[in-house]
Give the backbone structure.
Amino acid sequence: MSIKDDTKILQQFLKELPHDIAVKHIKTVKAIGKAENIQSTRVFRSTKQLSAVNAQLHNTLKQQSDSLGEEVIQDVKDEINTLIQTLTPKYQLGDKLQLVDGIEKIIFAEDNTHTTEKTTFQVEDGIVYLIDIWATWCGPCQNPMEHNQKMLEKNPDWQNKAKIIAISVDDDSDSVKERVNSKKWKSIEHYRFEKGWDDQNNLIKYLQLRGIPFVLLINKWGKIVYMGHPSKANLEEKINKEIAAEKEEEQTQTQEKAAENNNQQELLTKEQFKQVKDKLKELQPVLQDAKFEGIVQLQLQKENQWSHDGSKEVKKRSKLELSYDVNVAEEEKITAFLQNHWNQIPEELRVVKESKIRDPQRQVKEIKAKFQSHFESKGATISFPTTQITNLSLSQDKQEITGGDRHRFDIKCENLTLDTYKTGLDELREFTEQFEDEENEEIRETIEMIIEGLKSNVTLGEGKQFVTIDNYKKWGSDEFTSIEHTQGQVLVLDYWAKWCGPCVREIANNTDLIKQNQDKWGKAVRFVSLSLVLAEEAKEFMDTHQESQQYIEFYFPKEQRQKDATLYGVQYIPHYIIVDKFGTIRKVASVGNMKEVVNELINEEAPKKSLEQAQPVLLGQDAITQIKAILQSDETTDFIKSIDQQKVIAFDLKINSKQVGGDQYQFETVQLSYFVRDTQVEGLQTLLAKLYQIIPETSWKIDKTISKTITIKYPGAVCAVCQKDISKDAQQYYCHFKDEHVCTECAEFDDVTKTGMERYKYQDALIFINGPLSDLSVLTNIDDHKIGKNLKLKEGDKAEQSHPMMCNGCGGGAKGPRYISLNARPGRYRGGGYIDYCCKCFAELKNKDSERAKEIVAKDVADGMTIDSLFTRVLFNYGGYQAF
Ligand SMILES: [Zn+2]
Ligand SMILES: [Zn+2]
């Protein structure tokens, strides 16, 4: 399809358009760093939108475009549709206001009743109108409405010369009526859009209304002379000026002309433009070869402008435009591209439209600095100490120790009050919001980290230092003050509200408690109740609770839903915050036994040390190198491999160190968590001893789990129940708790849900030995925690199998006895649970040579299941049993 074809259709449309609207035909040709070809797009755009007066024409154009036949290809239809979109009618200054429909008039009667009447609104010539679109729920709309009423009262001479019309977007007229009555806004004429904020209403639609309050000023000739926010203009002055006007003032659209002039500058000669096109073709493969990450593109544009009479004028032949938005890693490549190619193009033929090199590290620095300086101006000091974290973990396949160093910054701050935190962040919102797009993920995370860090410095969590709470006044006082902690005094804060039953009861209880302990507690403890409701609303309560006021200080907030309550996580009330003598928050939310808690705290002699705190140690950086060397040595690897035959070791070492000058590092935490079996402890101790030589044991925080293991004797001599000789029986049972063997007949029973369980000596904890065994190692290193609890049903209780399980053999969610393999999935309880079987599959497994048994085993070979595996039997769910 050639250009001729779309311009031919365009000609038809042009004829219909008002003379002052021209149509631009914009052709854009692009070469994009990652794309293989040069891409070309064409688009039609009107030089301005249709006026709302011509709304009907827009419909006609739409119909015409819809009726374009099949001979017109889709691309052209799309172009025409874009054009029609850019013509969407909109009220412009100087437009005559059209009839407003879809509204109702609200008529107020003397007796404060009101009626509504479906109507339309049309301005009358000779009268100046101010139309105010508002709603009762819109906060910023209320002052302008008040101002409207005042203007009318102040200017009685406006009568018959100027009117103020308010049209509400409220969903019902009752709320409008109530507001107007209570505010006495009766000089204004009131209307309401029948469907509330309805985008299809002709006024809302053609104003393209996005927000309220919104006013229109209409001159005596019915034309719009002002549109916008009421407070952005001196309306009274404007109305007076319009009343006095003797002839219509020409409305000019200066902005558009300026924009047009701007474009004029980009008109290369035909010859130059040809060079630009050639350059684009030449550079396309260069861009492609460079394989830029991010956006790098070259573009050129040609604009033809078609006027109403069908004449065409070239408005733009652009220079070659370069835009890039890349990560700092691409900087070298971009520089090379600029030097070797871009700068070789004659200067008058090229222009850089966008040049963004994103450097997250630099930005992170800038962001930190921004937060620091901003909060510093508010009296708070923020610092970002860097911590080096060395992480050493056993690899997934347990073949080596892996890990490396990472740096993390912490957020420390001093003098950060709640108020500073909240207002500081509010003020920085505009700054932080600019990073909300996807490309700035790293920056966004940094900002979130900083905000979280700051928050944790003000949040009143347990163990945190108490922060002064501002903006409360004591009952009976008019002065707002702060709630502070006094050293040596226990402070009990209680968030409450007079409408909360439990809160009121607690206040009564606390009053009694303080009264009873007055001699002992005295000034050692201070009770402060922080109300969520304002003092004005609590008068009755306070009057009827005089006694409590002798023991509890009652404070009331400056505003409802004050930010301290939000920040301190007050969700349910009563909500306590208890601060110890040393200023540390010790309890948050609910307090079980107030008396006990207070007594304990007033008797404390010294600040409670956190148990988690290991002793910090100062060492050189080479300490980490040494530790790594030990862990990565062949010796260590061999040791780990040897004990990992049983797949049960876990080893995770984390060293946080902070550089404190020169080569000195302060090791803040040396955190080791490991899981080993008791049989492996010795070897591990040898390894740890080497590490302790570098960092003393007292400086480690160790989280260890040592799993107990047992070895099963096999075969047993006699059955502990029937005393028969079982030394020749391949299959038998063993009770670890009694160290006894049992024959299959005495151990196996299946009427577990029936009564008479007391007949059986062993109800739980029997281990089945599936002999004859070819691999005797199944008898050793059995994890103790996998063996049943040795429980017995209480007399009269009925056995029940309700512990959920899914059989590894048949996949059934079976009830009945459950048989857990003691050899497969050794070690800790894992996410996938144990390998266990229902009684049917267990019966199959006992028949070791059968195909089915081999099949069942084969499924879980990877998890260590073998045909020789032992099983523990779990008969019941846990609970309702006694130890045996
Ligand atoms: Zn027996
Ligand atoms: Zn099964």
